[in-house]
Design brief:
about 325 residues, alpha/beta, TIM Barrel, 9 strands, globular, binds flavin mononucleotide, tRNA-dihydrouridine synthase, flavoprotein
C-alpha cells in the first residue's frame, strides 16, 4: 500500500465544494477529491457556475482534481489549459457517465461506443501542449465486458497519468455486482498507475480490492464515503465516526448549503440526497428513512434524522443502496 492514494469519487450534488471543505475539515483521510464533472462550453471561458466548484479560493487547502466531460477536443483543450492556469496539477476526462442525456450526445460512457472518434479526440488532446497530466475515469464498456480489451488498447497509445476504472458497463448503470474479473483479465497489460472504483463499502472491502488488484495506485470510493465519512480515516488506522462527529458534520453541512444557496429549503433538499447514503451508517429503520424523504418541514426532517441517529453509528456502513441488475 506504499504511496496508495485514497480518492473521493466525483459525485454531482454530493461531493460539492461545500462537502469537500467540511469533509476535509471534520474527517480528513482523503488524499484527493475529484470534482464532479464540468462540461466546457464552446466559448472558451468557465462560467460563474463552473467557478463555484473550480475557483482556487473555494478549494484552498483541499487536494482536488477537476474532471471534464466533453467529446469536442477544442473545448477540452481550452478548459484543460485554463485549469492549468488556475494551478491544477491534473485534469481528469470523464468516460464513464451513463446518464441518458450525456450518452445521447456521445459523451461520458457514450464515447466508448465510437472508438474511432475517441481516438481522434485523444490524439488531439494529447498533442495540444497541455502541460498537466491527463487521467481518465472510464467504465469497462458500453454493453459487454469484451469491449474493454479494445478500449484499453486505445488508451495504451497515450501517456495517461492514471486510469481509474469503475468496473461496470454503461448498461449496468449503477446496478448489479462490480465486474472485477473483466479488469483482472487485463491487469498485466495496464501500463499506467491504476485506480479502482465501485462498491467498496467497508475497510475490509478496501483491503480486499487492494489485494485483488495487486496494490493499485488508487482506491476511489463514492457512495460509501457519504455513508461513512470516516471510512478513509479508519482505513489509515484512525477511529470510526462517533455520533457526535456525524451530528456536527451534518449540521455544518446543512448550514453551509443554506449559506451557499441562500435558501434553507433548497439546502434541505440537498441534505436529503446526502442522508440517502448517510443513513446507512445506522441500524436499519425503514420508517424513519422514509420520513426523511417525505418530510416537508425542517422540523419533520430533523425529527426523522434524530430517529435514525437513535440507531447509533455502526462499525461498518450497510450497503443499503445496492440494487440488483
Ligand atoms: C449521484 C452521483 C453522481 C455522480 N457524478 C459523477 C461525476 O460527476 N463524474 C464521474 O466520473 N462519476 C460520477 N459518478 C460515479 C461515481 O464517481 C462512482 O464511479 C460510482 O458511484 C461508483 O463508485 P461507488 O460504488 O464507490 O459509489 C456519480 C455517481 C452518483 C451516484
Amino acid at each position: 500500500m506504499n504511496g496508495q492514494l485514497l480518492a473521493a469519487a466525483p459525485m454531482e450534488g454530493l461531493t460539492t465544494a461545500v462537502f469537500r471543505r467540511l469533509h476535509h475539515q471534520y474527517f480528513g483521510g482523503t488524499d484527493l477529491y475529484y470534482i464532479p464533472f464540468i462540461t466546457p462550453t464552446v466559448e472558451p471561458k468557465f462560467t460563474d457556475r463552473h467557478l463555484k466548484e473550480l475557483s482556487p479560493e473555494v478549494n484552498a487547502g483541499i487536494p482536488v482534481v477537476p474532471q471534464l466531460l466533453s467529446n469536442r477536443s477544442a473545448d477540452f483543450i481550452w478548459a484543460a489549459k485554463a485549469l492549468q492556469d488556475l494551478g491544477y496539477k491534473e485534469v481528469n476526462l470523464n468516460l464513464g457517465c451513463p446518464s441518458g442525456t450525456v450518452v445521447a450526445k456521445g459523451k461520458g460512457s457514450g464515447f466508448l461506443r465510437d472508438l474511432y472518434a475517441l481516438e481522434r479526440f485523444l490524439d488531439e488532446i494529447f498533442s495540444a501542449g497541455i502541460d498537466i497530466p491527463i487521467s481518465i475515469k472510464t467504465r469497462l464498456g458500453w454493453a459487454n465486458t469484451e469491449e474493454f480489451g479494445d478500449i484499453l488498447n486505445l488508451y495504451k497509445k497515450y501517456p495517461l497519468s492514471l486510469l481509474i476504472v469503475h468496473m461496470r458497463l454503461k448498461t449496468d448503470q449503477y446496478k448489479g455486482e462490480v465486474r472485477k474479473e473483466a479488469l483482472l483479465e487485463h491487469l498485466d497489460e495496464i501500463p499506467f498507475p491504476l485506480g479502482v472504483n465501485g462498491d467498496m463499502i467497508t475497510t475490509a472491502d478496501m483491503i480486499d480490492f487492494s489485494k485483488t488488484f495487486r496494490d493499485p495506485k488508487m482506491l476511489m470510493v463514492g457512495r460509501a464515503l457519504m455513508a461513512d465519512p470516516a471510512l478513509f480515516r479508519k482505513y489509515k488506522g484512525g477511529p470510526a465516526a462517533s455520533l457526535e462527529e456525524i451530528k456536527n458534520f451534518t449540521t455544518a453541512l446543512f448550514d453551509a448549503y443554506t449559506e451557499a444557496f441562500q435558501n434553507r429549503r433548497n439546502a434541505m433538499m440537498r441534505m436529503k440526497e446526502f442522508w440517502f447514503f448517510q443513513a446507512n451508517l445506522f441500524e436499519e429503520n425503514p420508517k424513519a428513512f422514509k420520513n426523511i424523504f417525505k418530510s416537508k418541514t425542517e422540523e419533520d426532517f430533523l425529527a426523522a434524522i434524530e430517529e435514525i441517529e437513535a440507531g447509533r453509528p455502526l462499525t461498518d456502513a450497510r450497503f443499503g443502496w445496492k440494487k440488483p441488475l
